[in-house]
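User: Can you recover a sequence for this backbone? Please restate the input before giving your answer.

Assistant: Of course. Working from this structure:
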């Protein structure tokens, strides 16, 4: 019996009207139709861009639907209704509620959408794992325009507390005809921020290292990423300190030089454009708040397999034990309540 799953479902009630829009009234009944050793729950971002066929894949694989998750207003990159539980600042969006519900262990995973960073950014802001699946064709149905006037179709992504849960969810979308002979055949580019403890694990691959460029505007990031993927299959870099010293939102940033300066301090890099270039990308949280290693692959059916294999090699638990105890294991923590203790 998985006590964390059961307690997470029960404690979901505390988050209704905040990060949770609605809880499935049949979630406990659905859960007990499955052998308890396979219990997993998920939340779905409240958007029509996630097709029923995607949700059905999870239902067919012993995942139980627990929540419909709130998100930021009209896809904004910040959610002024929700607070980042770690920093106490405004929450990164737009899949803000989905990330918070995973952080507190209400759900094993969240299924969400990403236009210009809306899966990766909230996950990174809360030091969670995430994956964007645009590169293998998991997209929404409608073309939209970003807040800085770039056309895109939302990509589908997954957020999870740990690598095992993310890996198991993502591999449901691996195709049978994928090229599994990945070793030594792909070219990898890393930024110089990636330390030797990571590069040593990639010694069987061909890779080059470049200095990270301080790019901000989406047009420049798109051009640079196109140049990278014209020569390389995989790009590994670090998103660091996002939305800690600044507010990474274009609606805010257009309101003058001062707000633009504050927006730039949000430190968001390629996560703003990975979906726009139909990339597959996976984030591994680091020990510093709002920071993750990002492994990105150019569009193509082999991209998901490649980044999962590389992530397995370089993944490790960087996050402090107190963070894990306080947030990720929240459903397992006894709550002080005068009414029910003598």
């Amino acid at each position: 019996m998985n006590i964390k799953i059961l307690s997470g479902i029960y404690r979901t009630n505390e988050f209704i009207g905040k990060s949770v829009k609605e809880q499935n009234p049949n979630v406990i009944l659905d859960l007990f139709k499955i052998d308890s050793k396979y219990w997993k729950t998920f939340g779905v971002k409240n958007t029509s861009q996630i097709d029923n066929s995607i949700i059905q894949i999870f239902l067919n694989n012993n995942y139980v639907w627990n929540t419909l998750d709130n998100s930021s207003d009209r896809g904004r990159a910040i959610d002024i209704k929700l607070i980042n539980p770690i920093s106490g600042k405004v929450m990164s969006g737009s899949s803000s509620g989905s990330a918070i519900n995973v952080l507190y262990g209400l759900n094993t995973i969240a299924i969400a959408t990403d236009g210009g960073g809306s899966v990766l950014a909230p996950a990174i802001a809360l030091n969670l794992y995430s994956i964007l699946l645009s590169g293998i064709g998991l997209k929404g149905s409608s073309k939209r325009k970003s807040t800085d006037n770039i056309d895109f179709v939302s990509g589908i992504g997954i957020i999870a507390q740990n690598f095992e849960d993310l890996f198991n969810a993502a591999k449901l979308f691996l195709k049978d005809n994928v090229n599994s002979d990945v070793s030594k055949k792909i070219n990898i580019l890393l930024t110089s921020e990636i330390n030797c403890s990571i590069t040593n694990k990639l010694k069987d691959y061909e890779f080059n290292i470049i200095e990270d460029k301080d790019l901000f505007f989406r047009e420049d990031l798109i051009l640079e990423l196109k140049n990278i993927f014209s020569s390389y299959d995989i790009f590994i870099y670090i998103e660091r300190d996002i939305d800690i010293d600044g507010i990474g939102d274009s609606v805010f940033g257009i309101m003058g030089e001062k707000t633009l300066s504050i927006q730039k301090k949000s430190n968001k890099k390629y996560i703003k454009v990975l979906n726009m270039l139909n990339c597959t990308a996976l984030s591994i949280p680091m020990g510093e708040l709002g920071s993750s290693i990002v492994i990105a692959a150019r569009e193509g059916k082999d991209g998901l397999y490649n980044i999962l294999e590389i992530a397995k090699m370089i993944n490790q638990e960087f996050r402090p034990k107190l963070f894990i105890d306080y947030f990720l294991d929240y459903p397992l923590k006894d709550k002080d309540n005068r009414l029910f203790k003598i």
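That completes the design. The first helix runs from residue 3 to 11.
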